[in-house]
Write a structure and sequence with these properties.
mainly beta, five-stranded mixed beta sheet
């Protein structure tokens, strides 16, 4: 009987009496795969479009088996990173870390991570590090943000479409800037907006509601006080986004 492969990490499972003289090599490869899954590190260079991670059978170098994946490269368009939903052995359950170390030539380019077959991706805020889980059933979710990054926005890339977890430093020295909130949100999603140059009174920052309420109203929010810094948190459909912090 030929070897079979496990679920999740696709370890080679040798049948009784098979692979004479190869057990040492196969066992060492399996141990290296387990090491990758618990502490392995790799880099993944992105530019645009979709990049599929690998859970290749019996491979100790497959990037989808690494525990820590650092995203690098200069983006020229929106990107997605896709984790396989299954291996030869069955459904693939993965817990892994994604770090964004890319250069976004305009900050409006996005990075999303999803599982094969999933309709929408989990967005990666600029400069952030996320702990993610893929349950092998076409679902990938963020279970924690290990590090938040800061994203600088000005009139050159306004309107800017925010993603959950964004911390946005806004430059309105030359013109007003619009920050549009996500069109869908889950309870606890947050977006922070900061007057980076003490100019909100001269050129306002407009926070677009994008179909969801802000402070209980289906309308945008105008930030027109210098040194204003707010964090909005999504609480429910009625109130929508409300203040977690609000300073001036």
């Amino acid at each position: 009987m030929a070897s079979t492969y496990s679920t999740d990490l696709s370890l080679e499972l040798v049948a009784t009496g098979e692979k004479a003289g190869l057990w040492g090599t196969i066992t060492n490869t399996n141990l290296q795969i387990l090491q990758s899954a618990s502490s392995g590190y790799t880099t993944l260079s992105l530019t645009t479009g979709n990049t599929n991670l690998s859970l290749a059978d019996g491979s100790d170098t497959a990037n989808g088996k690494k525990f820590y994946i650092k995203l690098t490269g200069t983006l020229t368009g929106n990107c997605t990173v896709t984790m396989p939903a299954s291996t030869t052995g069955g459904s693939a359950n993965r817990v892994f870390i994604i770090q964004d170390a890319t250069v976004r030539t305009t900050s409006n380019y996005t990075i999303g991570v999803l599982t094969t077959g999933q309709a929408s991706a989990t967005k990666v805020p600029v400069g952030s590090t996320l702990l993610l889980v893929s349950d092998g059933a076409n679902t990938l979710t963020s279970i924690g943000m290990l590090q938040k990054g800061y994203n600088s926005i000005s009139s050159t890339n306004s309107p800017y479409l925010a993603v959950a977890g964004d911390q946005i430093i806004v430059d309105t020295r030359t013109n007003p800037v619009t920050v549009t909130l996500p069109s869908s949100a889950s309870v606890g999603d947050e977006v922070s907006i900061i007057d980076g140059y003490n100019f909100f009174a001269s050129n306002n920052c407009i926070v677009g509601n994008n179909g969801l309420n802000i402070l209980g109203a289906a309308s945008s929010l105008t930030l027109n006080t210098n040194r204003r810094s707010i964090t909005l948190v999504y609480v429910n459909a009625t109130q929508g986004w409300t203040y977690k912090t609000n300073t001036a």
